[in-house]
């Protein structure tokens, strides 16, 4: 990625230097005005992106208020039953919740960074990763491609629904990977300006069966627990996707606001340089005319 | 009791809960959340009846802790003030914990009065025709579930 950008910059620099020596004053003036125009266009884009994500954020936040009890309700059983990961089976599953779209600050990077720390530690061969959204896949694929068992895209264009989460849960359960413990890594929304990268634990049937306080629950058989776990996995995924979508939109709003502000600063500076250069050209032309006239 | 009530009206929401908590030791902390809407969030109710795959059952405070998987049907909630609310659920889970808290997480739920019987019958007919035209096992299973849910809706509205 970086290498490619570097090449472009090099080509661009070459082009500019081949033109510049010929008509120096005019070309600078023209290049500044071109740059000014492009920065103005970029500002327009970032401003409208900000407006779009502000609208999307308002909806995501409203949805999130509805989704929070789903997540907290689904988590309570694991806490009450004191489910703990089994030592005997080290297989772990991590679900990275991101989306397909960038330009939203460090939302995706934070999720991936958390995962990368885990993958660099010893015992990483027992870790499998499910990538939700193209962004996490793009970052992890090159170095940790062997750990990825499943990746999902077309996330982030529309708000996540329970159907999406259910489909994802089905895909995870049908992947055939036997894990004892897992985590959903996502960004928990706090306020418009802040979110924290958190995780929700998920467990498989054998782990839950070994929980110390499971015996206080009445009339359970494996089938009920299995169906219960399958449903609560989709409920937790739904909740995590909602939280992450809200964090993403709020973060994109902030990022685009900053970008618009920076573009504004750049426009101010470029306008100043443009005016100065124009003045310099006029002055030089005047000097040429005057000195030409006085030489006669 | 009347004194408690008139007093609690003056107090904020939080202190109402505290007053009530002191009054009844065995109350139920009830959460009912669906993918589309939250019906109850940590509120206290008298009784909840749920349809589950192991049979329909009622939940009173201090119910023995258990887990259950919801089957399409009507959840009936008896609120503290005597009001009865009927809510249709498509699928989901019920968790009853030993601290007397109850969580119902549903995929989708709607109050009975919001459901339209004509639309429900229409959905049932569509599901039936889907079932008869299904060829593979997976399609059949999906259509069977659709028929079950649609039948439950039609039955619930009647």
From TrEMBL, chain A:
It is found in: Mitochondrion inner membrane. The keyword Mitochondrion applies. GO terms for cellular component: mitochondrial inner membrane; proton-transporting ATP synthase complex. The keyword Ribosomal protein does not apply. F-type ATPases have 2 components, CF(1) - the catalytic core - and CF(0) - the membrane proton channel. CF(1) and CF(0) have multiple subunits. PANTHER family: ATP SYNTHASE GAMMA CHAIN, ATP SYNTHASE SUBUNIT GAMMA, MITOCHONDRIAL. This is ATP synthase subunit gamma.
TrEMBL record, chain B:
The keyword Ion transport applies. InterPro entries: ATP_F1_dsu/esu_C_sf, ATP_synth_F1_dsu/esu, ATP_synth_F1_dsu/esu_N, ATPD_C_metazoa, ATPsynth_dsu/esu_N. It comes from the Eukaryota. Transmembrane segments: none annotated. Residues 29-109 form the ATP synthase F1 complex delta/epsilon subunit N-terminal domain. GO terms for cellular component: mitochondrial inner membrane; proton-transporting ATP synthase complex. Residues 115-156 form the F1F0-ATP synthase delta subunit C-terminal domain. The keyword Cell wall biogenesis/degradation does not apply. It is found in: Mitochondrion inner membrane. GO terms for molecular function: proton-transporting ATP synthase activity, rotational mechanism. Its main location: mitochondrion. Keywords: Acetylation, ATP synthesis, CF(1), Hydrogen ion transport, Ion transport, Membrane, Mitochondrion, Mitochondrion inner membrane, Transit peptide, Transport. Component of the ATP synthase complex composed at least of ATP5F1A/subunit alpha, ATP5F1B/subunit beta, ATP5MC1/subunit c (homooctomer), MT-ATP6/subunit a, MT-ATP8/subunit 8, ATP5ME/subunit e, ATP5MF/subunit f, ATP5MG/subunit g, ATP5MK/subunit k, ATP5MJ/subunit j, ATP5F1C/subunit gamma, ATP5F1D/subunit delta, ATP5F1E/subunit epsilon, ATP5PF/subunit F6, ATP5PB/subunit b, ATP5PD/subunit d, ATP5PO/subunit OSCP. HAMAP family: ATP_synth_epsil_bac (MF_00530). Belongs to the ATPase epsilon chain family. Subunit delta, of the mitochondrial membrane ATP synthase complex (F(1)F(0) ATP synthase or Complex V) that produces ATP from ADP in the presence of a proton gradient across the membrane which is generated by electron transport complexes of the respiratory chain. ATP synthase complex consist of a soluble F(1) head domain - the catalytic core - and a membrane F(1) domain - the membrane proton channel. These two domains are linked by a central stalk rotating inside the F(1) region and a stationary peripheral stalk. This is ATP synthase F(1) complex subunit delta, mitochondrial. It comes from Aquatica leii.
